[in-house]
Specification:
Layout (H helix, E strand, L loop, with lengths): L1 E7 L2 E10 L2 E6 L3 H14 L8 E4 L2 H4 L6
Antiparallel strand pairs: 1-2, 1-4, 2-3
């Protein structure tokens, strides 16, 4: 499973890529809002910013904290 940080509209959501018949979709963690500040810091460490929409790598320690129903 690939965990990522999805940045859109200046929000950073810990997410995972889920395979579909036509590729993949990005699904936010159920607790993404609780993890948002840590996700922002992870993006900044990578040289990114939340005002630049995109998909960023998610550190393992942050991915382990994400929950999905």
């Amino acid at each position: 499973m690939d965990y990522v940080i999805n940045v859109s509209n200046c929000r950073a959501a810990v997410s995972r890529k889920e395979l579909t018949a036509s590729g993949y979709r990005i699904r936010h963690a159920d607790n993404w809002q609780d993890l948002e500040r840590a996700a922002q810091k992870a993006i900044e460490k990578q040289g990114g910013a939340i005002n630049i929409s995109g998909i960023y790598p998610c550190p393992d320690n942050l991915a382990r904290r994400a929950t999905f129903a």
